[in-house]
């Protein structure tokens, strides 16, 4: 066991040793039952949802226009850099905690704490974004059956509600939202589900992924058929110009494409969520890279196809809504009304699974940090009956529910993107450090074109951070200042590593609530 550091700097950058990480991995009671296809489906299940069903519309309507397709290329390329780095780290350090544990082992405790704070933005607020999108599809579907939720209870506090590019009118007057009730309720409901245990739903996740992919395939096939039936007219009407003229402040043009890339970027965090299942993979060195890179490639192709059809079929300015796919399928015509309802149901089912997986990942990050002493031990307390970290699960549920109920989806999405980009940059830096500090460490997967790939990952992530609105950057800076202060007030004083003790007696928390286990 490492000796206790003496100076503040030594304490800040104290690291878990490789032996400690391997010992924690060996002591885990989590069942190694996930194969490479399970992990790929886990990544696809998390990626497909937020980007396609929710954020694509606002990225096109406000920033890129039809050229949002190019934004997906940019975001996918940046994700490829980060994904390759994740693949190397996950095959080298296949442990629970994902980027948090990677940082603890390579760059030290202080950076690991910062990473934990970033992951709260990445997972917690991402769940809120998807919950707002879920709310939009539920409201749209219920309206198809004549069930109308009061408009005041379907949007962020204080915001005038918009639909199809125009204000929502009730009795001839515009509507200002009070609270997004459906988004709040789904977060709390899923928190309760996670708290009581969802081992039964492990056998349902692959079915949910199949439903989402089938729904999108139907959207692509039917939408593509409609587009091809009159392609020239659709191009002339909705794709001319393909890249709208820049109007300043990240709106359209090349600048808008880059701004939109930062918006849709967070939708790719599904491949990162795969790394949180490191202790449950059958063969982490082989299967983790396959799941991460494979899910990234599959979903990038799907994203671009869906974005092309969306922007061809309806004017991009109409897509600044939480449920852009619903807007598009409603434009198919009355003969396709049955398909519109089917796609909305599929979107709701899919988004539910995304919120569940994101909230799961956040609770396990908190659990791991609490085990390390950086958060109060109460957050690692496991329920004696349900075998879940029930207290921190309810905390995560409350945070995501409040954010989804009160805040605008675009603000939440921007905050998520900044946290995600910063976390990915640290992961790329961790690869560089570990290559230099432990060059002989066995690696199941090595980043190609090292050190160019991780360096490009860092630079591209930092560049996209600069494209987000100024007020979001200000929030991010204050958030980091608060996180740093909390580290010195609590984290450093209570860290197990500082007291030469690491918790090797992790209780069994049950199985991952996502993929089907191979039999």
From TrEMBL:
It is found in: Membrane. Gene3D superfamilies: Amino acid/polyamine transporter I (1.20.1740.10). It comes from Sphingorhabdus profundilacus. InterPro entries: AA/rel_permease1. GO terms for molecular function: amino acid transmembrane transporter activity. The keyword Transmembrane helix applies. This is Amino acid permease. Keywords: Membrane, Transmembrane, Transmembrane helix, Transport. It is a multi-pass membrane protein. GO terms for cellular component: membrane. The chain crosses the membrane at residues 37-55, 67-89, 101-121, 169-195, 207-228, 257-278, 290-316, 336-361, 390-409, 415-435, 447-466, 472-490.
């Amino acid at each position: 066991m490492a000796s206790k550091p003496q100076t503040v700097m030594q304490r800040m950058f104290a690291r878990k040793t490789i032996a400690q990480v391997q010992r924690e991995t060996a002591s885990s009671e989590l069942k190694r039952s996930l194969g490479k296809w399970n992990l790929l489906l886990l990544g696809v299940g998390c990626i497909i949802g937020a980007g396609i069903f929710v954020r694509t519309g606002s990225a096109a309507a406000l920033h890129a226009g039809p050229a949002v397709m190019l934004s997906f290329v940019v975001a996918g390329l940046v994700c490829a850099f980060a994904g390759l780095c994740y693949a190397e780290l996950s095959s080298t350090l296949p442990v629970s905690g994902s980027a948090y544990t990677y940082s603890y082992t390579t760059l030290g405790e202080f950076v690991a704490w910062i990473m934990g704070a970033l992951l709260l933005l990445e997972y917690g607020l991402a769940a809120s974004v998807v919950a707002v999108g879920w709310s939009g599809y539920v409201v749209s579907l219920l309206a198809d059956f004549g069930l109308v939720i009061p408009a005041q209870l379907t949007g962020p506090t204080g915001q005038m509600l918009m639909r199809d590019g125009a204000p929502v009118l009730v009795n001839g007057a515009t509507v200002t939202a009070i609270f997004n009730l459906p988004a709040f309720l789904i977060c709390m409901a899923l928190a309760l589900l996670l708290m009581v245990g969802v081992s039964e739903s492990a056998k349902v996740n692959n079915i949910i992924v199949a439903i989402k992919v089938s729904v999108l395939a139907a959207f692509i096939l039917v939408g593509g058929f409609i587009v091809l039936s009159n392609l020239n007219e659709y191009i002339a009407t909705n794709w001319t110009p393909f890249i709208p003229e820049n109007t300043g402040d990240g709106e359209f043009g090349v600048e808008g494409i880059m701004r939109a890339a930062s918006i849709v970027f967070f939708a790719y965090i599904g491949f990162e969520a795969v790394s949180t299942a490191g202790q449950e993979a059958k063969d982490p060195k082989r299967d983790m890279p396959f799941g991460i890179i494979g899910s990234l490639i599959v979903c990038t192709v799907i994203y671009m196809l869906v974005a092309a059809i969306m922007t061809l079929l309806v004017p991009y300015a109409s897509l600044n809504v939480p449920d852009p796919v619903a807007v598009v399928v409603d434009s198919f015509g009355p003969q396709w009304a049955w398909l519109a309802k089917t796609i909305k149901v599929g979107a709701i089912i899919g988004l539910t699974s995304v919120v569940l997986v994101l909230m799961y990942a956040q609770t396990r990050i908190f659990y791991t940090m609490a085990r390390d002493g950086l958060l109060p031990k109460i957050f690692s307390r496991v329920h004696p009956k349900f075998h879940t970290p029930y207290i921190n699960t309810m905390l995560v549920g409350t945070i995501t529910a409040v954010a989804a109920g009160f805040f605008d989806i675009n603000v939440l999405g921007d905050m998520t993107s900044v946290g995600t980009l910063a976390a990915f940059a640290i992961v790329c830096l961790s690869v560089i450090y570990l290559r230099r500090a432990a060059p002989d460490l066995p690696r199941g997967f090595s980043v190609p074109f090292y050190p160019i790939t991780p360096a490009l990952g860092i630079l591209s992530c930092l560049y996209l951070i600069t494209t987000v609105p100024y007020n979001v950057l200000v929030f991010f800076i204050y958030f980091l200042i608060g996180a740093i202060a909390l580290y010195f007030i609590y984290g450093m004083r209570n860290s197990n590593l500082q007291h030469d003790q690491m918790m090797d007696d992790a209780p069994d928390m049950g199985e991952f609530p996502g993929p089907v286990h191979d039999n």
